[in-house]
Amino acid sequence: MSSSSAAREPRFEFASSGRHLVATGVVRHVEPRSWVGTEVARAVEDVLAAPLEAPQLVVGVLPFDSARPGMLYRPAEACWRSCTFPGLPEPFVPSASTIAVTDRRPSHEGYRCLVAKAVETIRSGELDKVVLGRSATVCAAVPWDPQSVFVRLGIQNPDAFVYLIDVPGGYSGEFAQEGVFLGASPELVLSCSGSRVRTVPLAGTMVRGSDLERDERASEALLASGKDLAEHSYVVRAIAKVFRARTDDPRIPSRPRLVPTPAVWHLGTEITGTLRGGASPFELLYELHPTPAVCGWPPERACDFIVDHEGFDRGLFAGLIGWIDADRNCEWALALRGGVLRGDQATMFAGAGVIATSEPEAELRETAAKMRTFLAALGGQEGRHDP
Fold first, then answer.
1. What gap in Å lies between CA 119 and CA 375, rounded to an integer?
2. What is the pLDDT of residues 277-301, one digit of tens each?
3. pLDDT, tens digit, for every residue of 231-248?
4. CA distance 46 to 316
5. Which residue among 53, 77, 120, 129 is the active-site one?
6. Which residue from 121, 123, 137, 156 lies 20 to 30 Å from 13 (Cα-Cα)?
7. Is residue 85 scored above 60 in pLDDT?
8. CA distance 56 to 79
9. Largest CA distance in the chain
10. Is 187 part of the annotated catalytic residue set?
11. Has 53 been annotated as catalytic?
12. Side-chain-side CA neighbours of residue 234 (13 Å)
């Protein structure tokens, strides 16, 4: 067991839009008969309705493969705080000089070959889009403190969904050791307030410029990029189909907008609707996940390609993390721009959407830029550490 998770009760944190949820302990796990939307929704509501002396809240994380078991539970204690990340000093982390990249899966050349293989498959007509990920592991001279990394993620990414959850062995795929899963996701998969639901899928990415002029050119290039607009359209079409079938008054903009993060620009589209009847947000959540933003199109073929060729088990990476209360208010983000901490070792993940016009070197650069979100919170430096 890593020292970072052994010294405390299971902990869950989720910060967004000026609010910070902190939940500790576990009083009851959600254990559906099967991990499909209707069964998970029923099991979540049963746990929320149980007469327990605990907050009426379920928190947790779901894997990329929605058919696999997730980790959802009712915490023993929970409280909401105001987010104050921007006013905090950055906590100590290991010196950049003591941090080293020790493993990449696949290697840089392996990832280029993987993208080339995907482009060939897409041009043959078997796929339209596939999102290909890779992982990188770094080590430091001393263990990372998860709480310090979490705070740094919040300071450095003030508009993100900043998350942390203690994960026991068996829940994180290939990285199935006890550890702390945390990150700063830019992407909202589903929020629900009353019966009003909202999603903001992101697809299409451009690395930000090093100065104001270059950054403006990068954002303009993204809005005009046929490749990125096409990649984004697959995601919006898939989600719009679900919203039209499952919600009233769906609102789907005709064009995406720019969504900035410290490292990259994204194309994003805000889609809203009203849940029909007594439907649970979890049913809608499971119909959406995994979206083409992390999988591809058509989804079944894209997932098969990922399993056959990516070379590692994503586990929780590109899964869902969030919370839901007894009134069905909820917030679930994609588990992106993060990694698993285990003492002095950290494993991070990033992916890029591949279509027929994708270039292997450009997709490699995109994944490296995305990994820098987590790497910066660890104390790594661009130029010195190449994930």
1. 29
2. 889 999 999 999 999 999 999 999 9
3. 999 999 999 999 999 999
4. 24
5. 129
6. 137
7. yes
8. 11
9. 58
10. yes
11. no
12. 27
